Amino acid sequence: MDSKIITKYVYSFSPNNEPVETVKKGETLKFKTLDCFSNQIKSEEQLITTIDFDHVNPATGPVYVEGAEPGDVLVVDILDITISDQGVTTTLPEIGPLFDKVKTRTKIIPIKDGKAIFNDIEFPVNTMIGVIGVAPKEESIPCGHWGFHGGNMDNKRIIKGTRLYFPVNVPGALFQLGDLHATMGDGEICGTGIEIAGEVTVKLDVIKQFPTERPILETEDKWYTIANAVEYADALKLASEDMQKLIVKAYGWDATDAFLYMSIQGDIEICQGCKPSPGDMVVRFGVPKIDGKPLVR
Ligand code: CA
Ligand code: ZN
């Protein structure tokens, strides 16, 4: 059976969004995504100041997952990501540490054979998902924002082959995603990656009654907790506390040993750290995967 294809867009994560599809646990489906400017920018003559900001940061979905209830975890396997043959990057007014030293500029960036072409250099892409998550319990949160439901995490480790765990806040979870980047640096210093349209294939599953307040990411070699806050210290505290809890629960160590281990084996990494900006800091805390000792399940 061919997988279902999701093509409708929303601009917020919300318990009030009408699901566009209902899927069973274990089902595979494909999301067609627009870039974060809703594909409005087609040429370098179009500056960011001319686009319609009511239609930025679209996400595709949401999808209702049968059997997902509050208190459960939605498991999202990123099976594949394909991208269009060109992306766009732009400076943003008053965003990022160098905004007062640069022009407003749009750059169209061709993508060819897995490489991005920027002026006279080429470099390999690391195609990732910027916006991904589930509905919050009550409020509606714009897709350009961050939260314990996921959202615009801009985490460059969310790539093909990785698995995400989201806390389910409402029946069906209401999963959605968008905002692919052909590639992006940690912190996204000017506020944009190589913004690009594409398609993402995922498999959705549910773990019953696994308590987590915030998203967890499993990559080929690491476990990450992810958290956001206005201040770096607060985001770091939340991500660290989440990791400490996972280690205590999975390894049977006490909280002090978990903290010591996190300092010698863990890495603090920045997802979103573009300042100044009105945005939150998004940090991830990663520890290596150890054979036979998963942090989740
Ligand atoms: Ca983004
Ligand atoms: Zn983006």
Give the topology, please.
Layout: E1 4-6, E2 9-10, E3 12-13, E4 21-23, E5 28-33, E6 59-65, E7 73-83, E8 86-90, E9 106-112, E10 115-118, E11 121-124, E12 128-133, E13 141-142, E14 146-147, E15 150-152, E16 163-167, E17 175-181, E18 195-196, E19 198-207, E20 216-218, E21 222-229, H1 232-251, H2 255-265, E22 267-272, E23 281-288
Parallel strand pairs: 1-5, 4-6
Antiparallel strand pairs: 2-6, 3-13, 5-19, 6-17, 7-16, 7-19, 8-9, 9-10, 10-11, 12-15, 12-17, 14-15, 16-20, 17-18, 20-21, 21-23, 22-23
Helix pairs in contact: 1-2
The structure holds calcium ion and zinc ion.
The site of calcium ion has 5 residues, from loops.
How does this model look, in words?
With about 300 residues, the protein is mainly β. It has a domain of about 210 residues: Acetamidase/Formamidase-like domains (Jelly Rolls, Sandwich). The protein is built from 2 helices and 23 strands. α1 crosses α2. The two termini are about 30 Å apart. The structure holds calcium ion (CA) and zinc ion. The site of calcium ion (CA) has 5 residues, from loops.
Summarize the structure.
With 297 residues, the chain is mainly beta. It has helices spanning 232-251, 255-265, and strands at residues 4-6, 9-10, 12-13, 21-23, 28-33, 59-65, 73-83, 86-90, 106-112, 115-118, 121-124, 128-133, 141-142, 146-147, 150-152, 163-167, 175-181, 195-196, 198-207, 216-218, 222-229, 267-272, 281-288.
